[in-house]
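Lab channel / #folding
Pinned by the channel admin:
"Please post every new chain as: sequence first, then the structure tokens as a reply. Keep commentary short and put observations after the output so the thread stays searchable."

First post following the new format, from NK:
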Amino acid sequence: MNKSLLETRDLRKSFPVKMNPFSRPVPLKAVNGLTISLGAGETLGVAGESGSGKSTFGKLLVGLLRPDCGDVIYQGKSIGKMSGAELLGFRKEVQMIFQDPYSSLNPRMRVGEIIGEPLKIHGLADGAGLRELTGQLMRRVGLSDEHYFRYPHEFSGGQRQRIGIARALAVNPRLIIADEPVSALDLSIQAQIINLLQELKTEYALSYVLIAHDLSVLRFMSDRIAVMYLGAIVEIGRTEDVFEGFLHPYTEALISAAPHVQRPTATKRIVLRGDLPSPLALPGGCSFHPRCPYAESGKCDVSVPLLEEKKPGHMAACHFSAQLYR
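Reply from TO:
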């Protein structure tokens, strides 16, 4: 892997939740001890069910949320210890594409203003130069010059996501955090946006953290995949290693349930028992054990499995990886 561009170390984030108006707040553990690294030019896919903490993780990476503990380290420096000038540089180099193309755009701003705003904030262009650069960005993502003075409500979902992509590209970033960038779009539009993101990665030498629940999208775009469950990573490795040689029962269940992913011949459809446990009251031991078909009493419900390298470059947090997946 290339030299690390971004790292996290034991990243944790909780939100206080009141069960009723008279109770004390209870911590909802959205991100619970994440340690990852991302190489320059790499795409890291992040998979998991709704409620697994993926979006919170993305917001922590880009600095929209501050962690309770742990570090986000960009090019060797913790963003929590950056000076004002360094933080401004970080925000220029690390951009985000949001999940909802409807609510992520200011409805009172024209499209040209939305895309050009980052250029003005970072002092990269003004006046006629700003208009020209904005037009170039619009054309690059598949919009036309006549769209410059229109408002977001005049566009389709796919067009709005193109606006969000152009806004993220405006300051020439090195890393883009894409939070479910195609989940709100029709299938045919999804393919167009995915192809556009792939083209831009090569053209602009970008790195991506791609958050998605669609495993076929992650398999197509990602160099490595991290599988999240209840705020923690339970498996991470090269994309083909994860799909063809998974090492965690949760990953096995996700792949077996994905209709558009070619399954390994030995994989059967697995229906997990119960629902995702509440992050307000995490299970003891392995957090997946209440739903795991292979869980053993006295081991999985007591001992927390460490995220360990089971094969070269392939890590999993399961007590029985070696026995289950040979």
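NK: The mean pLDDT is 91.
TO: also worth noting, The chain is about 30% helix and 25% strand.
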